[in-house]
Structures are given as structure tokens and as C-alpha cells.
Specification:
By secondary structure, this protein is mainly alpha-helical. The chain has one domain. It has helices at residues 3-24, 27-32, 39-47, 49-80, 90-96, 98-101, 109-135, 141-148, 151-161, 166-170, 183-187, 203-230; strands at 178-181, 198-201. Strands 1-2 form a two-stranded antiparallel sheet. Helix 1 (3-24) packs across helix 12, helix 4 packs antiparallel against helix 5 and helix 7 crosses helix 8. The radius of gyration is 20 Å and the shape is globular.
Amino acid sequence: MTREAVRAGFEEFVGDIVDTAYDEFDVVAVLRGESGASGRLLNRLLKNSRRLDQRVVRPELRAYRRQVLDQFEPILAYAADADGDFEDYRDRVRDADVYLDHLRPSVRGDRRRTIEQAQLDRQRRLAEAARPLVESPESDFWAAAVDALDRDHARDLVQTHFTFTDPLRADPDAYVFETEIEPGDVFGGPLTARLPTVTVEYTDEVMRVLERAETTVVERALSELDRRFDAE
């Protein structure tokens, strides 16, 4: 199986999670919990939640999807390098990691190093678990899973290694997701230039929707795996 085919399978999985998360995302709940802007401005944002969704929520989730896929590139390179040493890929994996990029500035010292090492270990295990798929002669992701793995190992790949919200569950207070909202991007009109930029944190909501979406997509993927194995 080519690296491109493995990438395509992972992209489909991640895309399903982000699309499902988008359907669940509640921008109104985020704004109601926000305390960094005036009440009048927040009320205006709430009234324009649809436009806020288009200008802020969708771009943020698209950016998250892109980061997760970019993060997969050095992992996939290591998976394809059967004789490689993970240490040769360590810096690339760390620099591309979406969660390490979202660590709160207050997470420092030993705690930061512990979280970083745990995430690097998680990514290394993903690459090593995916290696049989890269080496399979099949050109389809699901066919390669059936060809290269038995049912238990294939299910473990999806349940344990393709899930990527584990860091959020392990250290929920270590990460921050926030964005700046330019009122002019939401409201339009000449008077909006006078309104201040608002920094909105949406950490709790992104954790909620990603975890729920991942559960849904994993169950769907496991059903597809079972269907493929039962057809053999």
C-alpha cells in the first residue's frame, strides 16, 4: 500500500471527525461563557451567530483539520521507513504536533516535558501500528487493514491509535484553544472599526465536540472493519 493511500484513509477519518464536530459545535454556548468582552458587544455577536459561524467557527475547525493532517506527515514518513530510528523524526513530529502547539503558556518545566514525551510516544506507536498498512500490497485502506492485520489488531489500530483526542482527556487543563474576532468580519459596516478585537477561548467546547465526534466516527469505522472481515 502506498503512503498516499494510507494518508487518504487517515484524511477520511479525520475529515469525518471534524465534520461531525462542526455539526455539534455550539457557538452560542461559547459566547455566553465568555467574559473578555463588553456585554453589548457579546449581545451583538450572539445575534449574529450564523455569520460568526461562517467567519470564525468553520475556519477554526478547518485549520484544526489541516494541523492534524500536517501532523500525520512525519508520522507517516517514519511508518514508511522500516529501518528508521524514531529519534531521526522526533523533532519533525514534535514541531508538527497540534496539541503541543496548543499547550497553555503556563505549562512549563517538568510537566511540559512529561506531556511532550507522552505525545511523542503516542505518535511513535501510531506510526509503528500503521506500518503493516504501508507495507501491504493493497491500494485501498480498508482492504489493506484486512490484508495486513487480523481483526483484533485492526480494531486496536482504530480504537487506540487513530484516536487523537486522548491528550485532551489526559490533561484537560493543559491546553487552550482561542481565536481573535474582528467585529468588522462579523458585522460589516463603517462603524465596526471602532469596536475592539475580542479574544474568545473555546477550549471547553472544542473538547466536548471533538470527543463526541471521535466516539461516533470510531464506532462507524469499527462497524466498517467488522463488515470487511465478515465478508472475507
